[in-house]
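Subgroup meeting minutes
Present: P.N., E.W., G.H.
Scribe: E.W.

1. P.N. recapped why we're keeping a running log of single-chain structure predictions: easier to compare across weeks, and new members can see raw inputs and outputs side by side.
2. G.H. added today's entry (124 aa).
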Amino acid sequence: MLRDDINNAIKEAMKSGQARRVSTLRMVNAAILQRETSGAERLKLSDAEILDVMGKMIKQRQESLDIYDKAGRAELAAQEREEIAIISAYLPKRMSDICFGMKPEMIAISSRSCAASSARPAFS
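Output recorded in log:
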């Protein structure tokens, strides 16, 4: 489960002395806990709901990053970039991000191979 992965990553970061990673992952845990306890009763978030919380955190940091860049606050902008990178490591890659990093020839080859494999019967 994603929550367990985050807790294990906090422990590893504490052992290796990565203060920024520890604080960012603790913020993620705090946001998850806040969402779990915000209603009348306490509930356990699913992985999809945790990903939603993390997506909102990234969006908040992107907005802060834009403000810091416009204000010329390079040190705060760098901190936001680090936090975005740490949180993004737990989000699944979007298909657009995967295809964006590929060369056009690779996309054409992969789409041809997908089309060819779907044309064959599943059981021969």
